[in-house]
Specification:
By secondary structure, the chain is of the alpha+beta class. It folds into two domains: 16-156, Glycosyltransferase (Alpha/alpha barrel), CATH 1.50.10; 163-295, Glycosyltransferase, CATH 1.50.10. Helices cover 46% and strands 16% of the residues. It is built from ten helices and twelve strands. It has helices at residues 25-39, 57-69, 73-86, 122-138, 142-159, 175-178, 194-203, 209-226, 264-276, 279-299; strands at residues 55-56, 88-90, 96-107, 113-120, 160-162, 168-170, 179-181, 184-187, 236-239, 244-246, 257-258, 306-307. The chain is globular and about 50 Å long. The protein starts with 24 loop residues before the first helix and ends in a 5-residue tail after the last strand.
């Protein structure tokens, strides 16, 4: 059984607190405690109680991000250790193929529990690496930074592709699963994490993480013109040779509509604006958020799903 703890985390319970005082601190702590109690098992597994009690790699990474933000190193260690011990992608001999996480774990048809889908979800690995870097800095744990750097090497190797024009783009998972044909790839705009890529560039200068920032913002700007609402889609097909996008049909498993995946674009871009004061992030939010405000003012609730032409 692997453990992720650094020596500095074994000195006793660390009180929950937030790094910056705000009127919302008590609410955030209460929210975290409720989330931890309801969704995180004692062994560190984060449970999706609305979907067969499964676990997905994104859930483990989100818990790590929240734990480091609210200064809960014990929960961070438990969730990270569980993921390393249970979401490892193994070959036929039982050896790890890389450090990326299998994205879905749960109960199999025979009643046993284990990996249900060994494909990785790039956003989960990005968020896990981000959490490790932040944890290394917050708790002075160099081991976390070493493990983040090792994970970054595999994210770069397996979760990005270089197109014939020299542009490097983030892809959602294994290239074999997200290439529709040689000249077309499926992208998920909500996986684009510019603030994380800036952190990665600081700790891993051997790889050009800034190139992913450029290609990602270009994608978001292009997709703003592709949709009549200007809102990003959950999924989109991209042809890097012609630099064109194609809508995926609504009866396809991965759909080109604004919905629960695309919601995360606002979080990730706002993070870039807040952490790094990034002009492209600020410009994107200032240009695209008004559409959501308009719909809120008209309907008194944010849209849950919209097609690219703006219909519900």
């Amino acid at each position: 059984m692997q453990t992720a703890a650094c020596a500095c985390l074994n000195t006793g319970e660390v009180a929950l607190n937030l790094p910056v005082d705000s009127p919302q601190n008590d609410l955030l702590i209460e929210s975290w405690q409720a989330y931890r109690s309801r969704f995180i098992q004692d062994d560190g597994r984060v449970i999706d109680r609305e979907d067969s009690d499964r676990t997905v790699s994104e859930g483990q990474a989100y818990a790590m991000l929240r734990a480091v933000a609210i200064n809960d190193p014990a929960t961070f260690d438990r969730t990270y250790s569980w993921a390393k011990n249970n979401l490892a992608r193994l070959d036929e001999t039982g050896e790890p193929t890389d450090l990326l996480w299998a994205w879905k774990w749960g109960q199999r048809p025979d009643g046993s529990w284990g990996t249900l889908d060994a494909n990785f979800a790039t956003d989960a690995d990005i968020d896990a690496a981000t959490a490790l870097i932040l944890a290394a800095r917050r708790w002075s744990c160099p081991q976390y930074l070493e493990e983040a750097r090792a994970l970054l090497a595999d994210i770069w190797e397996h979760g990005t592709v270089e197109f014939p024009n020299g542009t490097r783009q983030l892809i959602p998972g294994p290239a074999a699963a997200f290439r529709l044909e040689p000249d077309q790839v499926i992208l998920n705009p909500s996986y684009f994490a510019p603030a994380s890529f800036r952190l990665f560039a600081e700790v891993d200068p051997d790889r050009d993480w800034n190139s992913l920032i450029d290609s990602g913002y270009t994608m978001l700007d292009d997709l703003s013109e592709f949709s009549t609402t200007g809102l990003p889609p959950d999924w989109i097909a991209y042809n890097p040779i012609t630099n064109t996008y194609r809508q995926l049909p609504l009866d396809y498993p991965l759909q080109s509509r604004y919905s629960f995946d695309a919601f995360r674009v606002w979080w990730r871009i706002a993070q870039d604006a807040a952490w790094f004061n990034a002009p492209r992030a600020q410009a994107y939010l200032e240009t695209r958020i008004p559409e959501l405000i308009r719909r809120w003012q008209y309907n008194r609730r944010p849209p849950a799903r919209l097609t690219l032409d703006g219909s519900a």
